[in-house]
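QUALITY CONTROL LOG
STEP: pairwise intake check
CHECKER ROLE: data steward
CRITERIA: each record must contain a sequence immediately followed by its structure tokens, with no blank fields

ENTRY 1 OF 2
RESULT FIELD BELOW
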Amino acid sequence: MFFDRPEFGSQAFLVHIQQDDSTPEELNELTLSAGLIPVGGIVARKRNPDPKTYIGSGKLEEIKAQAQEDEASLIIFDQDLTPTQERNLEAFLECRILSRTGLILEIFAQRARTHEGKLQVELAQLQHASTRLVRGWTHLDRQRGGSGRGQGAAIGITGAGETQLEADQRMIGDRIKNVSQRLQRVQKQRAQNRRSRQRADVKTVSLAGYTNAGKSTMFNRLCESDVHAADQLFATLDPTLRELQLPIIGKAILTDTVGFIRQLPHGLVDAFRATLEEVKQSDLILHVVDASSEERDLQMKEVGLVLEEIKASDVPQLLIYNKIDLLEEGPRVDRDADGQPTRVWVSSLTGEGIPELIEALSQRLSHDVVEPWLKLKPAEGQLRSALFDLDAVLEEEVKDDGMIYMHVRIEEHRLNRLLSRFSSS
């Protein structure tokens, strides 16, 4: 059978399969984020997908007619399709087909900037492509094998040789192995960095949330950084770590990771395992929520599912209800029965609620906080400097004899460590 894949273009016709946890608006946003142009669309309902084409022949005829009328060069399905379904759909619709996973991979490929990010995306693309190599190659004949000089050549018993498909499978398999090994080295380096932070008692906080919830804007606001942030899905892809100064705690590390989305492809979760390991190993997760979204509860549920998949659901969380500038809400901190912060209402865009968030962060990360008065000798300048570095000094008095009295708020174990290291008494 001869089968050539249709040309790939930028004019996209969208097929939204209606389900309880999906919206056509999200498919449209994903399409725009990939740099494609939605020219039309249709909503289909399918409880039991057809194993050959996912949807029935009647709806396919309707899609084909509308896509041709809209001059679409690409049809995007808001569901994962099997390789067989994609191939059959392209043959019937005479148009290039892209599934939800393929669309998200396309966006990720465009967004990756760092070496690690590019490796992770390449691995996910290779794993996705490895199951679809049969597509577009069915017209190729077998390559003749054997040189004609080996055993059995005299009587014509040479092997049929390697098909183009088998050659491609072998090359992709070799590339997957190579990229995986390089990512393993990245993972080892990250693990080593985490151990160094743990030995230095440096707390790690990870941002997690649905894509476009405002994580990167929050990251920039907290760390005074310049990570790329935009009002689009997956605007930021590459993992970023920055230092964050907190009261009582002192230096902490804030990690920004890839945003989550409904039906996040498993291949992407596996490929980004090294990055997502930062979330799993963090001391606290800041779960950033778009408080203005009508899909807020659904998005929070999807983030919870991904955290469960990467085995990070047991890490303590602090909910951050972001974008209050779009609501009639002021900044506030909601607390549990023990007085611990559980939810902070902020606007990362305007900065409303950020001071309350920083205080809440310190409360959630600190333990056994004490507020003693310390008496320091003039020679104990290093201890005094260390206390100021931790932002632990509430009040300071210098007496005429040079003695320094400091009222501090600090975790008891940190104070004991500082005293044993710097105190001369």
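ENTRY 2 OF 2
RESULT FIELD BELOW
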Amino acid sequence: MIYEYSFLEHNTAERLRYYKLIVDFYSSLIDDIKQKANTDFEGCEWISKNLYSGEKRPYDYLRDYVREPAIPSFYYRQRRLALHKLNELEDARADAQLEIERLKRSAQTAADYYNLGLSYLYIGEYQAAIDSFQQAIDRDNPGIPDDIADATDYFGQGLAYKELRSYAQAAQVLTRAIEIQSNADPIAASQYYNMLATVYRLWGIEAGDPTKIQSAVVADQMAIKLPTPNSAKASNWRGIGLSYLEWAKYDPRHYPDAIEACKKAIALDDLDNSENWLCLGKVFSGWGVASKDITKFQSAIDAYLQALKLSSPNSAAGVWFNMGIAYLEWSKLDSSRFPDAVDAYMKAIHLDNPEMTENNQDPRDIADWYMIAIIYWEWAKVDQSKHVLVLESLEKALAIPIDPNDGDYHWHEKAWKLRDELRGSK
């Protein structure tokens, strides 16, 4: 059975305290500015009412200024990032929305439009993000094409195009960002190469084109050649591992290459190895599916358990989700593993924003319930009593409200389609 781990291990607890301190620090700065502005606003109101008459009053201008205090975008962005790490996603999204409303009224500089683009990116309004980053590009040293400041804007556009699955456009702007940044900031260029590799990998998966996946490997290999710290190189090796995993679906000889790449990432990164162990687990799981070798699934589980030791609650749910996939595939060879597969997804459900889960409101739980339904569907092939649990799990998935624009909405569609198919087959 699955081992239990406490997520209050020293490193995780310290990390959570650190992010909570960041939230509290920037909240106090924001609140102080708002309080001072409110006091000034009340003073402007009194002066306008008691000392001036007529339509044109000079204090109207000051009143308008203090009504919307100049809170640095950096404050909101840092608080938003910390809230995200704490899994307080609704508060993080609210911060982004506040920043959007403010900047839509006041944005003038390239930095303003860059921050506006980041906020749009966070709430999933990708075309608006692309347009905002373009406004930033147009204002960064006009007349100087591909100024160094443009690199981050092109990178932001690349992220948005990736989410829109416009992979050709994403690759184009990311390549421009790399060309600008390679000599100026190797660490940033390494991150850009890593994202370019991700784009090529996704492009290759969706198009069924292994040459695109090969391009992903090349992009990360180019990044490794840059003078960057080990943590950056680890990220590139992890990307190579994931790309070889996809390439191996066309040529199984690349599974060992994927394993080697993940192990190099683990050896290089002593800061946050959870992602590298997760990558290794995915590779072993994929190899197990291809080879029908139970020992590969056990290796996958071992890697996932290592990832859990290093994960925060925010990322642990994703590890359990992937562990559930490994157990599901293992169960097709050994039916005694079906309970472990269900257990893994239940762990993910309880970790996905517990307060929202308790109220049956967390959209991320839809994917978990859908996968539980798939497990029971497979399990019912050897135990017909599990048939009823398939529909029960799908109903739980569909009972959770979700916005059609949410990134997890496709899980809702899958659950709806499977439920209708099962009902129609009766």
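INTAKE CHECK: passed for both entries
DESCRIPTIVE NOTE, ENTRY 2: The two ends are 34 Å apart (CA to CA).
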